[in-house]
Amino acid sequence: MKKEMRYICYPFMRESASTVDFEIRTDSLTTRIGEAISLTKDIPEVEWDLRYLQPMAYHLNGSVRGKIAIDQEDLEKLSSLYDFYVAEVEDSIGNFVLPQGSQAACSLHVCRSEAKKSVRALHKVSLEREVPEILFDYAQLLANVLFVMAVYTNRKHGVEEIPFISKSYPTRPKKKEEEKSK
After folding, report:
1. Which stretches in the chain have pLDDT values below 50?
2. What CA–CA distance (Å, rounded) separates 153 from 48?
3. In whole angstroms, what is the distance from residue 44 CA to residue 17 CA?
4. Fewer beta carbons below 10 Å: N end or C end of the chain?
5. What pTM was computed for the model?
6. What is the rounded CA–CA span in Å between residue 98 and residue 152?
7. Hey, is 97 helix, strand or coil?
8. Buried b (16+ CB within 10 A) or exposed e, 148-160
9. Contact assessment for residue 154 and residue 42, using Cβ atoms and an 8 Å cutoff
10. Rg (CA), the chain
11. Is 22 helix (H, G, I), strand (E, B) or coil?
12. pLDDT in tens, 19-72
């Protein structure tokens, strides 16, 4: 007897391949981007960029099991988004910062974390089958874009970044003289 669709949340759920885990991760990322969209209405450029990125996360999702839907043009557009946000916040991203701030920025930090988990899940897939390098590039750049968007959003909301100084790894905080010479 055919199982009713109401009892199936995702048709590949019982597969043992890591592809399923990647698809679930990128679905979560896409959902979190939707949440971030709802919190960035007061920053139109961020909302607009997130509306662009949300379907791109689903294109990333389908590019492993199905036809690859990420191309060089998509990677270049994502790279230009990265360049825009870095130019706006580069003075705040020289060191690690704590993922905190406005609700919108915190949501973007969660998106960044989901993107990193997607990269890790993609790596697991690559241990089982061939994965085009452009998917890795896109997924990792997406995580970095979401990070700089979070910092940008905090800036727009007047929230200061809080540097994180690790006790585990040596870091070199920027010196005031280095900052002044730039």
Report:
1. 177, 180-182
2. 13
3. 40
4. N
5. 0.90
6. 14
7. strand
8. bbbbbbbbbeebe
9. no
10. 18
11. helix
12. 999 999 999 999 999 999 999 999 999 999 999 999 999 999 999 999 999 999
